[in-house]
Amino acid sequence: MKKQLEEISASAKAEISAVTDEASLRNVQVSYLGKKGKLTAILRGMGALSAEERPLIGALANEIRVDLEETIKLKLDSLKAAELENRLKNEKIDVTLPARSKSTGRFHPLSQVENELTEIFVGMGFEIAEGPEVELSYNNFDALNAPADHPSRDFQDTFYISPEVLLRTQTSPVQIRAMKGKTPPIRIISPGRVYRFDEVDATHSPMFHQLEGLVVGKGITMGDLKGTLAMFAKAYFGEETKTRFRPHNFPFTEPSAEVDVSCFVCGGKGCRLCKGEGWIEILGAGMVHPRVLENCGIDTDVYSGFAFGVGLERIVMIKYGIDDMRYLYENDLRFLSQF
Ligand code: DAH
């Protein structure tokens, strides 16, 4: 019986050491120490032993039971430790992983430039005026002194809704709305969309943006126009920026000019951006034609004014060195997120 006990002990220990999970360990425990377990069966059968043998076998069986219980407890501890170790390893947080970034929205580059220009002019005392994109032909052309045979009135250049109504081809009609029925001084800027019957290419779009400026008051001269635009150019392109006026022709201004700024990349020496010129054309301007003032009921003996119009796409493209206008309308985040 002693030998039988020792065999039970040995096989129990072997099974305990072989198990790899808690459930199997519990099964081993039950199969040896449970009510119907192998060791329990031995203890039950002790009644058949002689009086000398019984205490010896009893003591040995008890010793083995205590030993197995202890072995099971140790095994259980080591299984639990291994499991914890495993979980820690699997659930580890890698603090070196880059955080998931929150992508915040931003203004479209055109809106950014519009806001920047607006801010500069508002800082000089201009107010923001608005006009409709669907405009009267009269405001877009006639009142602005564009004669009936002016090429810009052609079907090929203008989206007409009816002979009297069109999609404005410029922000200049806001000048008319700002002057009619108002008494100077008037100092407005007006950014907005304009439309022309153009094929889409790298430098044309049937819809684009302008920012119009208008000042009317007593004793306003070309000097005021030059000073205002020179100040704007310095504020926007940098303190060293020079301004150049080249004679031009617009129906609604006399005299008229195209305005260039010294290249902000090369400072005027000539580079890729200014195409070796040293100068970059940025806008059209001039003294408001007396006929335009009269069309709005403004007394030309008392008042004079200047106006200017900036193409916003052009400014964005110059500023960021963008060589194709279509990028501005494609809503491709790979492009837009760069600004
Ligand atoms: N409206 C002109 C255009 O679309 C731009 C312009 C030129 C506006 C001279 C003006 C100006 O107010 O004085 O080409």
Task: Record keyword descriptors for this entry.
10 strands; 21% strand; BirA Bifunctional Protein, domain 2; single chain; 339 residues; 2 domains; three-stranded antiparallel beta sheet; seven-stranded mixed beta sheet; 40% helix; alpha+beta; binds 3,4-dihydroxyphenylalanine; rod-shaped
Fourth-tier CATH superfamily name of the largest domain: Bira Bifunctional Protein, Domain 2
For the biggest β-sheet, the strand order reads 1-5-6-10-9-8-7
Category from helices, strands and their pairing:
alpha+beta
The count of DSSP E runs of length 2 or more, i.e. the number of strands, is: 10
Query: What small ligands are held by the chains?
Result: 3,4-dihydroxyphenylalanine
Order of helices and strands: HHHHHEEHEEHEEHEEEHEHH
Question: Might you state the CATH topology name of the largest domain?
Answer: BirA Bifunctional Protein, domain 2
Biggest β-sheet strands, sense, barrel: 7 strands, mixed
Low-pLDDT stretches are none
N/C terminus separation: 90 Å
- The Cα radius of gyration reads 45 Å
Instruction: Estimate the global geometry from the Cα principal axes.
Output: rod-shaped
Q: What is the quaternary state of this protein? A: single chain
Please identify the top-level CATH class of the largest domain. Answer: Alpha Beta
Q: How many domains comprise the coordinates?
A: 2
